[in-house]
Backbone:
């Protein structure tokens, strides 16, 4: 079945996008990503340790940009200015790479996005030639604004970052999916494979996750489960589920030919 | 001598240092990193010709694990 995800004109076979944070080491990171089948992986941009162990391993040696599409993020940024500066550094770091994940946070406890700053940063970045995938609240009005600004994908939260609480408001996600001409990805909140499947069954184009895999008891096994959850949910969406009825009186076995009548 | 800030830390440097010289001195030459000087990107191709000035604020960043 040819069912690929197209983001900013590039085609991907996998609809699961994964983060690279919170793993034990880079070997585990790489093994989990391989098991997930993800082709797009997020990375964060941080100050290098000056004068401390300059030979320490570099994440990019484990995730060669030739093999994976790296998606630099703005995690930890609380203003549009910081987010824009971070992604300009990322573009320089990754040799002109323009596909980025914008997130501007509003609160250090909940990591809820600051939508006014997110909209402001999106506008600057799009004008500057970036292909912006944007983490946002599940407000359909602001998701539409982000699409109109020119973001290449909108990525509403399913629940709070790192919470593992799953899909808390499928109805808002449904509104965003139904109205959007760009891909819609659930970013944040997925806790286990069924959450990923539910997101995909709603009609999401993809799911982005990190903690659900990295903080599972067995990250590699959970990465495989997530791959299957996303695939199962996607196929169920494409197949079209049966209608819901409170009862049907329509058994699956024949109602005639019963013995003893 | 000039005073600069590198990744938020104050440092005193010889005044003739270029960005490339600084990276060399810090053992960072040839690493996958990006440099911002006073809010502006210093492209890799301009590291050798960009000479640091008193009061410069530098950010030197790498990619790390994140979600």
Residues:
């Amino acid at each position: 079945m040819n069912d690929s995800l197209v983001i900013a004109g590039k085609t991907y076979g996998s609809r699961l996008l994964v983060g690279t944070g919170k793993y034990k080491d880079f070997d585990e990171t790489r093994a989990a990503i391989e098991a997930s089948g993800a082709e797009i992986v997020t990375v964060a941009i941080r100050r290098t340790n000056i004068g401390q162990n300059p030979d320490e391993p570099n994440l990019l040696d484990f995730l060669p940009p030739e093999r994976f599409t790296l998606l630099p993020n703005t995690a930890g940024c609380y203003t549009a200015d910081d987010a824009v500066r971070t992604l300009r550094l990322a573009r320089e770091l990754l040799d002109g790479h323009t596909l980025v994940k914008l997130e501007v946070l509003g609160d250090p406890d909940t990591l809820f996005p600051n939508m006014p700053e997110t909209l402001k940063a999106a506008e600057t970045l799009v004008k500057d030639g970036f292909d912006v995938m944007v983490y946002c609240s599940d407000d359909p009005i602001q998701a539409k604004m982000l699409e109109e600004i020119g973001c290449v994908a909108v990525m509403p939260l399913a629940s709070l970052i790192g919470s593992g609480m799953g899909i808390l408001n499928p109805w808002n996600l449904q509104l965003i999916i139904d109205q959007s001409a760009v891909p819609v990805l659930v970013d944040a909140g997925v806790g286990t494979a069924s959450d990923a499947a539910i997101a995909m069954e709603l009609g999401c184009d993809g799911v982005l996750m990190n903690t659900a895999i990295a903080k599972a008891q067995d990250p590699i096994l959970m990465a495989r489960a997530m791959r299957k959850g996303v695939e199962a949910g996607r196929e169920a969406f494409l197949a079209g589920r049966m209608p819901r009825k409170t009862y049907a009186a329509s058994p699956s076995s024949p109602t005639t030919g019963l013995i003893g009548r | 001598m000039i005073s600069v800030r590198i990744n938020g830390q104050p440092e005193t440097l010889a005044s003739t240092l270029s960005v490339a010289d600084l990276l060399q001195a810090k053992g960072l030459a040839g690493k996958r990193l990006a440099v911002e000087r006073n809010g502006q990107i210093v492209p890799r191709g301009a590291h050798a010709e960009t000479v640091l000035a008193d009061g410069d604020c530098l950010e030197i960043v790498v990619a790390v694990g994140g979600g």
User: Anything to note?
Assistant: Chain B has a mean pLDDT of 93.
